[in-house]
Amino acid sequence: MALSVILAAVVGPVSLITRGLFTFSFSKNKVIASNLAQEGLELVRLVRENNVACDTVNGPATWRWNRDPEGGMLTRVRAGVDIESFTVIQCGGSSIATPRLSVSCSGPLLYENDSLLANYGTYGYRSGVATLFSRCVDITSPPDSPDGDIPASAQMDVVSTVTWNERGIERRVVLRERLYDWR
Q: What is the pTM of this model?
């Protein structure tokens, strides 16, 4: 009888602690995934801002707001976008570093946690330890269903998706944003 009372007193708190650890792990991963998805949107926004800056220098006939950093147009693109990978674009007499969009987003993000490096605590595709997370950014310009008051050519839909596998279940965070040619 005493043994069953002791077991009941121990099993309850142990199961609560175990469940708390699983919940903490899921919450931590969801926060990381949300931040990575937001970073994907911000990097595409930076491409747009750099294009607008170049347009101001070069003139609207030579530089479009939705230009790909490699020279094409951001029409229907599925890409990885990386804080560690930049390309330099020439704008008049200036050079602007702008994020590079990779052709693939199938690989896992790598985490660099070396305090001797300038990119301490960053996620990217170039160096570091493989993580659970992968990020893919889908860009559609013009969008499939544009806002009615604004020309479709002045709109871009950006969807940043971060996926990870946790205990055999695929998890996903999806953030959407519509960017505009605001000039």
A: 0.80
